[in-house]
Amino acid sequence: MQKPFMRIPYTGPLPPPIIVPRNANTTTGAISALTKFLFPPSSSRLSPPPGTHAHTVLLTGAGVSVASGLADYRGTAGTYTLNKTYRPIYYNEFTSNHEARKRYWARSFLGWTNLHKARPNDAHLAIRELGKQGLVSTVITQNVDSFHPIAHPDLPTVELHGYLRSLVCIQCGNHLPRKDFQKSLSMLNPQWAAFLAEMLETGALDSENPDERRKKGLKTNPDGDADVPGAPYTTFKYPACPTCLANPPILSDGSRSIVELDANGAWSPTSTAGVLKPAVVMFGESIAAEVKIAAEEAVDNASKILVIGSSLATYSAWRLVKRAKERSMPIGVLNLGGVRGEDSFYGETKVGNDGSLGVRCSESADKILPLVVRNLELTATTG
Q: pLDDT by residue (tens digit) across 193-246?
């Protein structure tokens, strides 16, 4: 029986970036190296192994969405970088603790507005073009913002850690659109809704600058929530799963569950079912078997892997690159700052490598990927 993938954060120090090839330390050199990496092989020396295709699979992280106004985790303005005490909620904590869920949904209520109005940036659109050129087969993303399927619906996306666009009931598995849930939260929490309106009016959620948000009393995080230090989270209320409320499910012990509402119409702690969670893989939660298999097959069916905007700090993502390494696939990394275990990816890279055998550059994805796309178009035209 295969071990499940689990979303576990890596908290150790990250190494400085290893630049490969050496001339990739400039923007021009990085564009050239990434072009060589992505361009189809022209010699048998670079031909893909039997049973695979001459395509690259992409593995993206929070760094891809920074230009859309969202925070990342470990960048220069990332959540872990600026807030050393930040601790994400874990699955067991969410499922077992009513107060923890209040805090989570209050923060999510405030942060959802910014995420909902954010849009894919130039990095996502450049990835769409790489798909159209036939150079990329699949995108595996750790991001939960849905920008990849929005930007390139015809290029397959495996959402490794789920998505925030809907919720799922822990007991019955019913899905609910996040925008409908947001309306319910607003109705149940009029004072919080007024506070959110005030935040919107002051522009605290409009600034893409995390420093400006903090000045206005907000800390935003990559998973779509916003923290207001000192806020009365214990007063927050959240709805019950409507399916469980209408027809309480049978529990594992064979008894029928209880789903009750309090005087305000919110989920009551006397309930034994009806708990909704975001359709994301929380830290400490296992990735669904079908998603794990889809990600592994995407790696196995490609000839190269390119990591974009990720430090590979979660084991579920790092393991996919390790899998590619074990299959002797060329590995590319486009990420600002260090990457977990990157020294092991390039230790055997041959002298004279121009990027086709492996590339590592420290550049902003939204700035460099459109230039790489343009360079690939010119390369294809000139032969």
A: 998 898 888 776 665 454 555 455 555 555 556 667 678 899 999 999 999 999
Say whether the peptide bond before residue 49 is cis (omega within 30 degrees of 0). no
Q: Which residue has the tokens 């579920």?
A: 316
Distance CA 33, CA 20 (A): 8
pTM for this entry: 0.88
Structure tokens that stand for 345 in this block? 């990816």
Query: Crossing angle, helix 178-188 and helix 98-117, to 10 degrees?
Result: 120
CA dihedral sign, ordered 5, 8, 12, 15: positive
Residue 338 token pair: 């260090």
CA distance 216 to 237: 24
User: Two tokens at 340?
Assistant: 């977990």
Measured between its terminal Cα atoms, the distance across the chain in Å is 48
Give the containing element (helix H, strand E) for 166.
Answer: strand 162-169
- Picking from 71, 348, 311, 346, the residue whose alpha carbon sits closest to that of residue 214 is 71
Residue positions annotated with a catalytic role: 161
Identity at 274, one-letter amino acid code: G
DSSP structure string for 293-343:
HHHHHHHHT-SEEEEES----BHHHHHHHHHHHHTT--EEEE-SS--TTHH
Beta-carbon contacts of 205 under 8 Å, excluding residues fewer than 6 positions away, are: 110, 113, 114, 199, 213, 218, 226
Helix and strand counts by DSSP (H, E) for the chain: 14, 11
Nearest to 314 by CA among 341, 334, 288: 341
